Structure formats: structure tokens, C-alpha cells
Amino acid sequence: MASNGNSHVSTKPPPEPSPLRKAKFFQANMRILVTGGAGFIGSHLVDKLMQNEKNEVIVVDNYFTGSKDNLKQWIGHPRFELIRHDVTEPLLIEVDQIYHLACPASPIFYKYNPVKTIKTNVIGTLNMLGLAKRTGARILLTSTSEVYGDPLMHPQDETYWGNVNPIGVRSCYDEGKRVAETLMFDYHRQHGIEIRIARIFNTYGPRMNIDDGRVVSNFIAQAIRDEPLTVQLPGTQTRSFCYVSDMVDGLMRLMDGDNTGPINIGNPGEFTMLELAENVKELINPEVKIMTVENTPDDPRQRKPDITKAKELLGWEPKVKLRDGLPLMEEDFRGRLGISRKK
Ligand SMILES: NC(=O)c1ccc[n+]([C@@H]2O[C@H](COP(=O)([O-])OP(=O)(O)OC[C@H]3O[C@@H](n4cnc5c(N)ncnc54)[C@H](O)[C@@H]3O)[C@@H](O)[C@H]2O)c1
Ligand SMILES: O=c1ccn([C@@H]2O[C@H](COP(=O)(O)OP(=O)(O)O[C@H]3OC[C@@H](O)[C@H](O)[C@H]3O)[C@@H](O)[C@H]2O)c(=O)[nH]1
């Protein structure tokens, strides 16, 4: 049984996978479920999984923040299936692996209906664990750096238990993901389910919703539209930004490896929001103004992953630097906004 190097090991044998997996003459494809697969990270993950001809990919999504458009190249493909479904309802299908991403990720969206966000994280994760238990599938949860809250340890490694406000406006997401992690380990210990937990740090790239509200998409859309970049106060708060192709590579290594996690997956390059704005200005629109605006409650003041574990256990580290990733995202945003670069 997989271990993450500490005492989280299950005493139960994992549930039996589908008999098809053991069939001698039936060359079954790997049936991979991606919940939230119509979203930003999910759709990039689907692209990568579909490159392997031995994979069948099933996406389940309620389209709250995702869109069919992100998957248009796969609709109608014989190895691809798209199901409109809310993970807060049980799902009865046959699968071998589950990448469980379904959950709004941008603070403005997860705060929009906090009760629904909690339900998605708790009931949605319970349903997907139930599915994993019935089918014997391995399940990977995309948890978050937000489990560390406003961290008092810097950089954050996986042993840090976090500094989270349990009753704040971000709690539906932070605490929701913390409960989701607990459920994953309880199912692992109690039922032997094969689990993987990724703690994802801020990820950016093409296909983010233009009105997503997260900082990189906001700044790029603002720079392209020649609107001031809105740096929320104080502007000295930090984040570490991982390009989406690196993220997908890390998630797949975690799924296919032997370690339960939790494992941080993120880019350790750390930037203040003012530095990010300066970079966007320089690379995308040197004329654009930078303005400061009010922040929202409980905004974490610093965030930077310690990725020692990902390097050692997954052989993973990010390859794309922020200054290389931003122009790739600019190109995608310009195409969708229909605004080309000034000569
Ligand atoms: N992008 C990041 O920086 C980041 C950081 C940490 C963790 N994560 C996690 O990664 C996952 C994907 O994030 P993303 O950036 O792609 O976000 P996203 O909002 O683009 O994608 C989330 C997807 O889940 C779907 N969804 C939401 N609630 C659902 C429900 N109840 N049932 C079915 N589908 C539902 C949405 O419609 C969307 O397609 C999320 O679990 C998020 O918490 C992302
Ligand atoms: O227009 C903006 C938007 C945001 N910000 C600032 O940028 C920083 C990052 O904010 P974002 O909204 O992009 O995202 P956060 O880092 O707060 O949360 C993020 O990280 C962890 C993930 O799990 C979440 O899904 C993700 O949204 C914050 O300090 C925020 O105050 C701005 O300065 N201007």
C-alpha cells in the first residue's frame, strides 16, 4: 500500500478493481473520470490524458465556472464522454481512476454561494469516495494551498497544519478542502481506498475565464483592454504562480506514483502583487496604469510552496517561469477578446 512517508498508511487492503482489469483477453482501456473537467485545470488535464490512446476520459461537470467550449476538440471523440452532473448528487458509473477537481476555485465564485461550495467539497468528495469504494478506483483530490490559511510558516511544507479562520468568508473553501482531505484519509484508513492528495498553489494559463476574478487573469485582461491594473491593498502580499502545463504534469505523476500525499504542487517563485503588476505592465502593455484598490477579508499575506517532497517523491519541478508563461496567456486572451497587440 502506498505511503507518504508518515503514519497515514491504511490497514485495509484496497477494494478489488473491476474484473475487466484482470481479464486475460479483453484489452480494456483505462477509464478515467475527471470531475470539474470543463474548467481551467481540468480541461488541460483532459487534453493530456486524451493523448494516450489507452485512456477513455469521462468528464462530469455542472458548468458553474466551466464550459463545454474548453472541451470542444474532444466532443464526439470515441474515447471521450461528457456528462452534465453535479457531484453533490451520487454518480453510478464504472471507472478505474478519478481525478476529483470539481469545485469553483476563484474566490469571487466560491464566495458567491458559500453553502454550495461547502456541499461541493464535502458531499461531492463523499460521493466520489463512494464511487472509488464501489469500483476500486484510485482517487486524486485537488486540494489547495488555502488549507494553510494565512500561513505563519514560510515557505509552507506539507507538515504545516495551517492558520485558517473557521468562520470567515473564505472558510467555505478553505475548511471545505480541509474536510475533503480528512474524508480522503478516513476512507483510505477505514476502507483501503487508494488516495492521492495534491495541494495546488496558484495556477495560471490559457483558458482561464476572462472574468474569473483571479489576479493573473484580471491583470492580463486589464492590460489588454488598457484598463488600470487593480492591485488589492497592501500589494505586498505574495503568491507563487505555476503554469498550467507544469501543474498537469505534477498531477499525473502524483496519480500514477506510489505516494498518497498530501504533496504541494506549485512554483516556488514568489512575487508580491505589485511585482506581478509590474511584470504584466512591462511584458504586455508598458502604457497601462497600476492602481490600488480595497482588499477582501482574510486575504493570505504570503504564500510559497516548499516543493522538496514533489521533487523527491515525484521527480517533479516546474519548468515554465512566470515571464515565459504570461505571454502564452496573453496570446490566448487576445484571441478571445479580439484585441491584437498595438504595432
Ligand atoms: N487554479 C488554481 O490556482 C487552484 C489552486 C488550488 C486548487 N485548485 C483546485 O483545482 C481544481 C480546479 O480549479 P480550476 O482553477 O480549474 O477552477 P475552475 O473553476 O476553472 O474549474 C472547476 C470546475 O468544477 C466545476 N464544478 C464546480 N462545482 C461543481 C459541482 N458541484 N459539480 C460538478 N462540477 C462542478 C466547474 O463548473 C468547473 O468546470 C479545484 O478543485 C480547485 O479548488 C485550483
Ligand atoms: O484584481 C486583483 C485580484 C486579486 N488580487 C490579489 O491577488 C492575490 C491572489 O488572489 P487570487 O484571487 O488570484 O487568488 P488567491 O491566491 O487568493 O486564491 C487562490 O489560491 C488558492 C486556490 O485554491 C484558489 O482556488 C485560488 O483562487 C490576493 O492577494 C488578492 O488580493 C489583486 O491584487 N488584484
UniProtKB/TrEMBL annotation:
Keywords: Cytoplasm, Decarboxylase, Lyase, NAD. It comes from the Eukaryota. It is found in: Cytoplasm. The keyword Phosphoprotein does not apply. GO terms for cellular component: cytoplasm. GO terms for biological process: D-xylose metabolic process; UDP-D-xylose biosynthetic process. Residues 1-10 have a biased composition (Polar residues). Its cofactor is NAD(+). Pathway: Nucleotide-sugar biosynthesis; UDP-alpha-D-xylose biosynthesis; UDP-alpha-D-xylose from UDP-alpha-D-glucuronate: step 1/1. InterPro entries: NAD(P)-bd_dom, NAD(P)-bd_dom_sf, UXS-like. The keyword Nucleotide-binding does not apply. Coiled coil: none annotated. Pfam families: GDP_Man_Dehyd (PF16363). It catalyses: UDP-alpha-D-glucuronate + H(+) = UDP-alpha-D-xylose + CO2. Residues 1-20 are annotated as: Disordered. Its EC number is 4.1.1.35. GO terms for molecular function: NAD+ binding; UDP-glucuronate decarboxylase activity. Residues 33-327 form the NAD(P)-binding domain. Catalyzes the NAD-dependent decarboxylation of UDP-glucuronic acid to UDP-xylose. Necessary for the biosynthesis of the core tetrasaccharide in glycosaminoglycan biosynthesis. Belongs to the NAD(P)-dependent epimerase/dehydratase family. UDP-glucuronic acid decarboxylase subfamily. This is UDP-glucuronate decarboxylase. It comes from Capsicum baccatum.
